[in-house]
Amino acid sequence: MTLTTPPRAPGAPLAGRREWTALGVLMLPLLLVSMDVSVLYFALPAIAAELRPGATAQLWILDVYGFVLAGLLITMGALADRIGRRRLLLGGAALFGLASCAAALADSAAGLIAARALLGVGGACLMPATLAMVRTLFRDEAQRAKAVTAWTAVMAGGVSLGPVLSGALLEHFWWGSVFLVNLPAMALLLVLGPLLLPAGRGGGACGGGACGAGSEGAGSEGAGSDGAAAAGRFDGWSALLSLAAVLPVVYGVKEFARHGWSSGTGPAALAVLAGLCAGAVFLRRQTRIARPMVDLALLRRPAYGGSVLVNLLAMAAIVGFAVFTTQYLQSVLGQSPFEAALWSLLPTLGVMGAAPLATALARTVDRAYVMTGGLLLGAGCFALLARTDLGTPLWAVLAASAGYAGGLVSAMTLGNELALGAAPVERAGSAAAVLESGQELGGALGMALLGALGGAVYTAAMPASAPAAARETLGGALGGPGPVLAAARAAFTESLAAAAGGAALLMLVAAGLAYGLLRGKRRGVSGG
Fold this sequence. Notes:
With 528 residues, this protein is an all-alpha fold. The protein is 74% helix and 0% strand.
């Protein structure tokens, strides 16, 4: 069961102060990109009052950022490997800053939707580049483990911090302030990035302060084996096909999550089918071109493909159940949105404590066992939440939530590190993008699957005499007669318990996959 810590590979120098400072600079844009997924939750009422968007426009204001981000991750990851990660990172930071200004100053719903789409493009440039830079900056396995832990914790924490930051800003400023807060971090990245980040396509060895702007080692632009391997014509057809595959699937799955599996979701089903067909064409093309955008051989490597699958399932449980937690705090317990957002931050304490502990434990114990333990911890905490009723105290719900968050994010951290270590340095951008695309898809699937399960239980638990709107959603019962609202709150608590049970089953499957596919796999390209 135990694994001895492998000796440091020759040519893998330790990172110094410059590299750790660079990591801190990279965390700022990552935090803001992940926060922008949820930062509009509180701002939408103020936006609606000023811009007067219709119901469809409101949905696009919320969703277009995530759609564009998910659709472009694979393309931008491959582009980072071609033109250089630092170049794409800095370009993405400039675009993200300009789009933030455009969003803050938008005077129409269409203008805000367009600005949010540009933010998605900028975010797609930033996210895979930041994770690929971790692979570039930290060649030592133990140091890379710590860096990936920080990356995963910041990414997971950003989504939780978004509503809190939004609520705090809206207490004092107008709604555009939720976008302008991005500017200082992007400006800092543009100033410090050229000084601290390596310029290489393939990401040459850094360490010992060798990653400065003028470094011309193995990773410098156009030089060294990595740079030569990464060079080549960018395949525009693969980029279009990846977009055509991911966007319709994410859109269709989110529509299923929003409306349930009803007869009116035919367009969503067609979108998913079209995306799957485009995905099949995309994969076929990857087998026929000399320089594929996605390395299918890498996906078949258990250390990488298994990690992608496990992380997808973990994200499905986290995102899919978060919707229920938010509604439970506000609509069942009667908390204000800002108060609910503050309470929902408490589970992140579990992440802060568990993720570093799991990383340290994985130095001496097979990481598959640590990941399996984290996923089983998540399954157990979801099982406790499956017993939630109207009499369950808030502290019990929050404690179980902290437990599953800590367990699942710990497993995802180790999965990210194992997958990055299995990828060649020159393909780190593409490898990071596929990891993140899987997590985006997992979140959408979790919302659809757990949302459909919870919705069915809610409808079945509501009395037939209740108004139609109240039988469909808890929101439809708010403001209604007292008995109807009480019945709706009880029914929603049952639906939350059912969703927790579904999440527990997902985590049992993920634990089995982690144990079966990742056992004995070591960090490093040879270990896959």
